[in-house]
Amino acid sequence: MDDLRSKYIDLIAGAASEAALEDLRVQAVGKKGEISLKMRELGKMTPEERQKAGPALNALKDEVNAALAAKKAALADAALEERLAAEWLDVTLPTRPTRQGSIHPVSQVTEEITAIFAELGFAVAEGPQIDSDWYNFDALNMPDHHSARAEMDTFYMARSEGDDRPPHVLRTHTSPVQIRTMEKLGAPIRIIAPGRVYRSDYDMTHTPMFHQVEGLCIDTDISMAHLKWTLEEFAAAFFEVDHIEVRFRASHFPFTEPSAEIDFRCSWEGGTLKLGEGDDWLEAGGSGMVHPKVLQAGGVDPAKYQGFAFGLGIDRLAMLKYGIPDLRAFFESDLRWLKHYGFTSLAQPNLHGGLS
Length: 356
Ligand code: DAH
Known about the structure:
The protein is of the alpha+beta class. 40% of the residues lie in helices and 19% in strands.
């Protein structure tokens, strides 16, 4: 018994890994382990022999189990020590001395818009940039012959020869995300959908790719008043002033009824733009009450639900807020321009810490 004890105590002390330790456990006290087999022999002993050997074997088994547990803990401690030493990191080191990159104004403004609408309870939704003409047009109440469809300067994707299905398009606006979100979430809904859109157009104020943010709010008791309030809250927060008056101008969009163009009160006095004061109006985008046919296309019951939608130009909002004169510069990747108009990558826009 003494031999068994010193054999296993030594082996356990020398075990180099948890796996080796497990092998030793099986070898000593496992079902067919050396000590376990000895315990089975107790049955063949005389009562006197058993009275001596039984407690001694039990004590040996306990001792070996305790040694195994202690060694296991010691191995785990050593492993942790080793990891802590290897993964040591000097958190007091200074950051890199020079700013290596910057956040593009479009990204910055998208973050700002998202933060403002998050505060108003709007989630962010997304849709594909290549979409079917059904999502981009038909579902939005713009059938084949509709003039608005022709005015969109659409980029059509090619179909392979002999494939007569209608072509996919580069989405011309973020409005198709309205349909996809209704399909996915049903009503009620409160989302914005920022993203890239494409139109075949290029001059001082148009680029073939630009950015819009769509808004969609659907419930059982939504009116134009909610739309106007939401836009006023957004405008004041975005331009970082106390209040901005919003004016609705009657308009027409196929996907809304009634439809309104959105103007913000502003002044251009002295050549600089001031929002919320003055006698001028800044065109900010389109909006209206979602057309019943659009609700239907998204699988939402127009007899029960109604809602508002709006679409704003993100690039234009960025130009106005940060005094950027030429839209085309946004997409030229000119390093000096990016350095000048870019934002620090460490700032996270939010309403409490400040947007910009
Ligand atoms: N999709 C329109 C466009 O690109 C903008 C727009 C107008 C969106 C009215 C809307 C809306 O959601 O209600 O010109």
